[in-house]
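Quick review question:
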């Protein structure tokens, strides 16, 4: 009994430390809002002030020279890539790769002509459809599926490439409806997110708030469109369960996930011509304006001692919900 009491006391001490850890991070180096930079800093300065301390920022005048800023609109896309087939994520509710009930549900990946997607986005077609369309396929879909557009942007961000000493792993193209929402998650990339037109609304949570961000395991499944116009959820057979965040930051269930009330999300809007630096391991939830166009660059993170510490924090964080 005495040994059990000591162990219980040790666990409670760890829980107290986990609650204190994010507060100290905010006091030491995190800001209460996402700061703006008037222009890109030098590679060394960017690494020292933003990458190394793992802090986000929004950068102005980072890609003013891209032809995409003046060229990319529906008329241009119809002329240059209208007949091209692209991969589009299709869902009944706008949530691709998200928790739905007791499942982690991925979108139906549909091949369709770019012009057909534009019809939906512009309201020319698909009216009344119980479906939401979003070009969100990653793994360098800009280069792999739309090479005709690559001359309108850069293949990498020179100052970021110099700062990190590597080229991006992927350059991704994003276009879709306002109803398309990216659920809360994190990536193992240093992310430069460039909005070409429209705007994106981000909710960001720092990695140090991991003790307050719940994860649960879910059976993976995929949306499948039926002939009658409805969707069904089809389980992936013999698939391992997927760990995912069940909290919707727009309407969190604090009765079920009380620790989440201690998280301190940052809210920011990235407008046309602006670049968001989203550091690796930051949790993020994303919404967008109708027809918003964006390109992002994923640079692989360094798996160094910071990652090692985060893995330790992640392992301990389950104690707060136990």
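Suggested answer, residue by residue:
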């Amino acid at each position: 009994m005495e040994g059990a009491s000591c162990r219980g006391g040790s666990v409670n001490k760890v829980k107290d430390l986990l609650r204190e850890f994010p507060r100290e991070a905010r006091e030491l180096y995190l800001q209460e809002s996402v700061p703006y930079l008037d222009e890109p800093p030098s590679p060394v300065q960017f690494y020292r002030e933003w990458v190394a301390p793992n802090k986000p920022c929004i950068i102005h005048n980072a890609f003013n020279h891209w032809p995409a800023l003046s060229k990319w609109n529906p008329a241009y896309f119809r002329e240059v890539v209208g007949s091209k087939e692209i991969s589009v994520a299709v869902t009944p509710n706008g949530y691709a790769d998200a928790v739905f009930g007791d499942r982690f549900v991925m979108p139906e990946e549909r091949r369709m002509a770019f012009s057909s997607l534009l019809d939906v986005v512009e309201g020319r077609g698909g009216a009344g459809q119980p479906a939401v369309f979003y070009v969100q396929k990653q793994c360098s879909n800009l280069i792999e599926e739309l090479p005709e557009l690559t001359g309108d942007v850069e293949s990498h961000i020179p100052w970021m490439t110099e700062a990190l000493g590597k080229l991006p792993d992927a350059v991704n193209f994003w276009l879709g409806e306002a109803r398309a929402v990216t659920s809360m998650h994190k990536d193992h990339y240093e992310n430069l997110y460039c909005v070409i037109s429209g705007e994106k609304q981000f909710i960001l949570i720092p990695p140090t708030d991991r003790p307050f961000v719940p994860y649960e395991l879910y059976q993976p499944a995929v949306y499948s469109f039926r002939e009658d116009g409805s969707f069904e959820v089809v389980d992936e057979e013999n698939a391992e369960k997927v760990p995912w965040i069940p909290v919707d930051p727009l309407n969190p269930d604090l009765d079920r996930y009380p620790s989440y009330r201690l998280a301190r999300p940052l809210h920011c809007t990235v407008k046309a011509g602006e670049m968001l630096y989203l550091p690796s391991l930051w949790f993020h939830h994303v919404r967008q304006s109708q027809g918003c166009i964006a390109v992002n660059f994923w640079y692989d993170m360094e798996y160094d001692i910071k990652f090692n510490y985060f893995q330790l924090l992640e392992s301990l964080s389950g104690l707060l919900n136990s």
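Why it works: The two ends are 20 Å apart (CA to CA). DSSP finds eight helices and 19 strands in the chain.
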